[in-house]
Amino acid sequence: MKTLIMTAALAISMCTVAGSAWAKTSCDDVKAQIEAKIQAKGVKEFTLTAVPKDEKTDLRVVGTCDGGTKKITYKRGKAAS
After folding, report:
1. CA distance 23 to 26
2. Using one digit for the tens of pLDDT, what is the confidence trace for 14-66?
3. Which of 35, 43, 67, 71 is 20 to 30 A from 25 via CA?
């Protein structure tokens, strides 16, 4: 009986870990991480934008978010006003 309980507990904990690995990462979180890396390289003026993954763009794609449903594009320089 003790072995059965230990096996069930192990199975439940593994399912919990696997579920969190598949959780969607928010675009705001990913953009914040990318922004920190870009700023660490000394770039002061740039724009990061989350767009649908199927949207065509000439901008550089620097990440994905929301479970792969969006991509994050990067444009160096001052944002258009």
Report:
1. 9
2. 554 444 444 578 999 999 999 999 999 999 999 999 999 999 999 999 999 99
3. 43
The pair phi, psi for residue 16, each rounded to 5°, is: -65, -45
- Cα–Cα distance, 35 to 65 (Å, whole number): 14
Residue 4's SS3 state is: helix
Tokens of 31: 């953009």
* Residue the block writes with tokens 């990440």: 63
Query: What is the C-alpha to C-alpha distance for residues 54 and 77, in angstroms, rounded to an integer?
Result: 25
Beta bridge partners of 71: 51, 64
Would you call 51 exposed, middle or buried from its count of C-beta atoms within 10 A (0-12, 13-18, 19+)? middle
| Longest alpha-carbon distance in the chain | 68
- What is the per-residue pLDDT for 39? 95
